[in-house]
Structure formats: structure tokens, C-alpha cells
Write a structure and sequence with these properties.
Order of helices and strands: HEHHEHEHEHEHEHEEHHHHEEHEEEHE
Structural class: alpha/beta
Strand order of the largest sheet: 2-8-7-6-5-3-4
Radius of gyration: 21 Å
Strand content: 15-25%
Distance between the termini: 50 Å
Oligomer: single chain
Helix content: 40-55%
Bound molecules: pyridoxal-5'-phosphate
Number of helices: 14
Length: 385
């Protein structure tokens, strides 16, 4: 007889609990060292005012999909603004980065095509590739030579797509975008770059890492989330006009979903104003990130090589990561244990996300608390990845 669903689900939940993989929903508490609000914009009064004003004018809900009654001039305006900022012909706004990645990978790659995907890509890129009719080939993380070989030996009838994050969300390291761009040029492949954690923070204009390492001409489309450094919600897919037009016509996550509340477009205009006019915010994030990395290493805490605002402290087993996180939370630091499937098994970690509001004394206090929780002392080297 078939096992009742409830027993099966209860069994699955028990297994999660036994393996220290059961999640709890915990509201923010303490100093923020875990959110993606890198520039500290989520509570900025200028964004809040613009959003409140827009709710008063446009109401709460958009009432339909963008292709029906859910469209507003505000979406057009902010998409034009984002495209200009990113240096692409057009941009299209989605209600989340997850949906934007599903849209890109289920719309452009077709049967007969192959998606070459970095092994550490975000779940939304993995799911997009799985939903796509194209074949998926996973390449070792950031490994240009392995990708070159795979591009050479994998039989492909149609297009080749290379898909990567520019700044990896759980490891804080960066993809070799210039090498990928020249590889794609010589192999006739198309590069898709998820700039979720780079947009707003990296690049001299704050547009992300494509700006410094590849150039938009080498990228088919980029995905730029707006709920992280931009402090609001959603994501912009940016690229050539023909590519964006095709998403509007064919991307199911865009077509078959209610448009986001119109007020988010107004808040995003305010956010882009700040990213453009206050470059000191992103410089501060970088200064604090460097400081955090140095302090951790001095305290004997192994820190992977890199420069970004995302600093993983890898603890290995789930129980240890949970214990260290709880210890730090008790001392007023909001850090979370990151466990599989968000990261590979055996690499549970504390993911420190440095934002512009973290002060130097906080970094010192946090470093001491983390060293005590991990039971380490003395200087440590930087671990090369
Ligand atoms: C690399 C990456 N891409 C996409 C997403 C999804 O974006 P969103 O949270 O807007 O759905 C995330 C979210 O964590 C991410 O880290």
C-alpha cells in the first residue's frame, strides 16, 4: 500500500532535524552582518518617502500582469534608467531575481543548445537550467581551462551558453569574466552573468563586475537583483533591445505573473539616484570588507582569498555552524548558519556580509566574539581558493 503523504513528510522533516538541516524563520535581531543590504539603502528615508508617495498615488497592487493591466509608466521609466546606468540598450524588470533567472534560462536556450554552468551557481540558475529544454553541463568552479575543454569536446547542435555569477553569493569570490568573455568569443558561445551581489557595490560606477572585467558587448544578458544592494525588490535583466523584446514576448515568468506593486519602481528610482550620486557608500563597503578580512586573519580565523563584501567562514559540519551562529546571536550579532543545500555538504559556514553601516569598533568586537566561538587564537594566513 502507498505510504500516506503525511507520514512521508514527517519522516523527511525528522531526517532534516537529525542532520541539523531544519530551518527556522527568524526575524532580524542584532547588528546586521548577514543581509544583502550592502549599501544600507533598505531603510533609507529617501526610498521610503518615494515608495509611500507612490502608494498614495498608484495604490498597492498592480492588478494584472505587465502584458495586461499591470503595466505602469513607472516600470518603463525605471527600466530605461537602469539600462542607461548599466550601459545596455534595454532592461526588463522582474518581481524577483529567482524569476529573472528562470526567465533567461528557459527563454533563450532551446532544445539542441547546451548550457555550461558553474558548479557553484545559485539555485535559481540551476533551476532555470533544469527547466530549460537545453542540455546542462556543469563545469568546476571558476575553472577557465576546464570550461575551455568542455566547450571543445561537448557536441552541440545549436547555441552554447556559459552561465556564471560575477560575485558568488556564498563564497564571495569573483568569476574570471574577461577570460570567459574571450573564451566565448573564440568558441562562439554566449555569456550570461548574474550580477546579484555585485550590482550597486562593484565597478567604478557601481554597475557591477561586468563594467570592470568583461564589457557589456561580451555579455548576452546580465541579471541584476534589486532586493540586495539596491535595497528594494525584484531584478533587472539588461541586454540588447532584441533580447529584451524577446523576453517580453516569450518569458513565462514575466508573462504569467502579476506585475510587482507599482511603488517599487518609484523606490528603485530613488535607489539608483543614490547609487549614482553617492559613490562613497560603495567605497565604504570595500574599506570595511578589507578591514573585516584583515581582522579575521589576524585573529586566526581562516578567510578565503578575495576582496569582496561577502566573507565565508567555513566550519564544516552543520552542528558546528549552528552553534557558532547561536553564540554570536546571543552576543547581539545577526549572523546565520548557511548549510546544504545552499552550500555543498561538509562546507557549512557563517556567511559574513559586510555593509556600509558597520563601524570599525563593531568589526573588532565581532572578530573577538567569532574567534572565541570558534576557539581559535593567533594570526592566520589567508586561505587561497
Ligand atoms: C546569485 C543570486 N542570483 C539570484 C538570486 C535570487 O534573487 P531574488 O532574491 O531577488 O529572488 C539570489 C538570491 O539570493 C542570488 O544570490
Amino acid at each position: 500500500m502507498r505510504e500516506p503523504l503525511e507520514s512521508r513528510v514527517r519522516e523527511r522533516l525528522r531526517a532534516l532535524e537529525q542532520n541539523q538541516l531544519l530551518r527556522t524563520l527568524t526575524a532580524p535581531a542584532g547588528i546586521d552582518l548577514s543581509s544583502n543590504d550592502y549599501l544600507g539603502l533598505a531603510r533609507d528615508p529617501r526610498l521610503c518617502e518615494r515608495m509611500i508617495e507612490a502608494v498614495g498615488r498608484d495604490g498597492c497592487g498592480s492588478t494584472g500582469s505587465r502584458l495586461l493591466r499591470g503595466h505602469r509608466d513607472g516600470f518603463d521609466a525605471v527600466e530605461r534608467r537602469f539600462a542607461e546606468f548599466k550601459g545596455t540598450e534595454r532592461a526588463l524588470y522582474f518581481s524577483s531575481g529567482y524569476l529573472a533567472n528562470l526567465a533567461v534560462l528557459t527563454t533563450f536556450p532551446e532544445a539542441g543548445d547546451v548550457i555550461f554552468s558553474d558548479e557553484l551557481n545559485h539555485a535559481s540558475l540551476i533551476d532555470g537550467a533544469r527547466l530549460s529544454a537545453a542540455r546542462r553541463v556543469v563545469f568546476p568552479h571558476n575553472d577557465v581551462q576546464a570550461l575551455r575543454r568542455l566547450l571543445e569536446v561537448t557536441p552541440v547542435e545549436g547555441q552554447r551558453f556559459v552561465v556564471t555569477e560575477s560575485l558568488f553569493s556564498m563564497d564571495g569570490d569573483t568569476a574570471p569574466l574577461s577570460e570567459y568573455a574571450s573564451l566565448c568569443r573564440s568558441a562562439g558561445a554566449l555569456l550570461v552573468v548574474d550580477e546579484a551581489h555585485a550590482v550597486g557595490v562593484h565597478g567604478s560606477r557601481g554597475t557591477g563586475l561586468i563594467e570592470t572585467s568583461a564589457g557589456s558587448a561580451d555579455v548576452l544578458v546580465s541579471i541584476n537583483t534589486a532586493g540586495k544592494a539596491l535595497g528594494v525588490a525584484g531584478a533587472f535583466v539588461a541586454g540588447a533591445a532584441w533580447a529584451i523584446e524577446y523576453l517580453i514576448q516569450r518569458a513565462r515568468p514575466f508573462i504569467f505573473s502579476t506585475a510587482p506593486p507599482p511603488a517599487v519602481a518609484a523606490a528603485l528610482e530613488a535607489s539608483l539616484d543614490i547609487v549614482i550620486s553617492e559613490p562613497e557608500r560603495r567605497r565604504l563597503v570595500m574599506t570595511r570588507a578589507r578591514m573585516m578580512r584583515e581582522r579575521l586573519a589576524t585573529a586566526g580565523i581562516p578567510v578565503p582569498a578575495g576582496f569582496s563584501q561577502i566573507i565565508p567562514v567555513i566550519l564544516g559540519d552543520n552542528e558546528r555552524a549552528l552553534a557558532v551562529a547561536r553564540d554570536l546571536q546571543r552576543q547581539g550579532f545577526d549572523v546565520r548558519a548557511i548549510r546544504p543545500p545552499s552550500v555543498p555538504t561538509g562546507t557549512a559556514r557563517i556567511r559574513i556580509a559586510v555593509n556600509a553601516t558597520i563601524s570599525e569598533p563593531t568589526i573588532d568586537r565581532f572578530t573577538m566574539a567569532l574567534a572565541a566561538a570558534m576557539n581559535v587564537s593567533g594570526p592566520c594566513c589567508v586561505v587561497s581558493s
